[in-house]
Amino acid sequence: MAKPQKRYVCQSCGSVAPRWAGQCADCLEWNTLVEDSGASVTPFAAKHHLQTGGRALQLVGLDSEIALPERLPTGIAELDRAMGGGFVEGSATLIGGDPGIGKSTLLLQAAAKLAMAGRQIAYVSGEEAADQVRLRAQRLGLGNAPVQLAAATSVRDILTTLSQGTAPDLVVIDSIQTMHSDLIEGAPGTVSQVRASAQELIRFAKERGTAVVLVGHVTKDGSIAGPRVLEHMVDTVLSFEGERSHQYRILRAIKNRFGGTDEIGVFAMETEGLSEVANPSALFLTQRDEGVTGTTVFPALEGTRPVLVEIQALVVRLASGATPRRAVVGWDLGRLAMILAVLEARCGLSFSSCEVYLNIAGGYRVQDPAADLAVAAALISALSERPVPADAVAFGEVALSGEIRPVAHAALRLKEAAKLGFERALVPAASSGEKGPMRLNGFRNLGSFVDHMLGRG
């Protein structure tokens, strides 16, 4: 049993002290501290076992009928695709990306379209003045959109304003790193301030049914700045990818409690703002010539959307004794090292004295393991200086044993390739039975694939 703690109460001012003293530290009166005979009741002492004193919860079954939350379609098809249909009422969305990538432009366009559709939209900027946001809207041709603008960094002021009257349908906070909560100490942007500010904004979203979008800064490695718990607190995390020197941007859902995380949206940065790219396959394919070696077309899959990308490889032979270099843009360097090792160990091709450079055209990033065979084809073509047929695509997963394994949704990949005029496909043997307009060449292992590429039979 815990030992009861003593406390001393001043008879003059009522302050409490843990030990007796001749003079009260608060009112400076002498001989006024008296031991309190009653037990010190604290919230922890009253509920130390946490089995009583709380509010009983209402439990429901999995089979209970629950109305699905309403979505707010933005009218921007690529944004709605990435989010699974639009913003969800009462949800919190976090969007991150490099500076200047177009986060504010995209959200301003979405907010303007929703406002023109009759929704009540509030755009709060902590980095720019309201006049700056208004000037950007005029450059985008959205100056007449009835979006309510404000420039503020105090979370208390923002929530007090939003709580007056009818809550807006969508609130954009740009950015969460500039917000400040007076409940705790600390400068804006610190871990405690970002967490506290986001918690208050998310609580408002859940209580009032307002969709809240938080813009987040990113660190050098591309992750969202601030506490990692921020990504756990929100419902959806979007990543806006791309290079500022490139025209094209990719919006990818990293986390989505109301939809899938395998869809992407493709945009092009133009003078009028971000425009949608309806056919990304034509975007990531360069002008291809018949005699170019080291290039292969790979039908990637992002959710339900097939995207054809060009994989480019360059192999440079070095003098003996030089250390070869491996450089990759848009793919995993460790995966490239594995493909090179399998080609050397299983197929007898030597890359140990060669520098290897691999690039995914158009700034696209490939994470699909089905790209193994296309990368191998580009490497073999660059080493042997024999071009891959311009009307062929390749896909398949390569195992360490040299086996070429089938991949998911082969028919969908082939359909997209045939739509763009490709006539043949280099695929795993298990996928060679797919019916379609293309001519399929199936391979069971990487050795037979190398023999086919080099014309050995």
Describe this structure in words.
The protein has 457 residues and is an alpha/beta fold. It contains twelve helices and 23 strands. The strands form six sheets. The chain has a nine-stranded mixed β-sheet with strand order 8-7-9-10-6-11-12-13-14. Helix 9 crosses helix 10 and helix 10 (372-384) runs parallel beside helix 12. The longest helix is centred in the middle third of the chain and has 18 residues, at 191-208. The N and C termini lie far apart (86 Å). The model has no long low-confidence stretch (mean pLDDT 86).
Percent of sequence in beta strands: 15-25%
Helix/strand class: alpha/beta
Shape: elongated
Per DSSP E runs of 2 or more residues, the count of β-strands stands at 23
Into which percent range does the helicity of residues fall? Answer: 25-40%
- Count of alpha/pi helices: 12
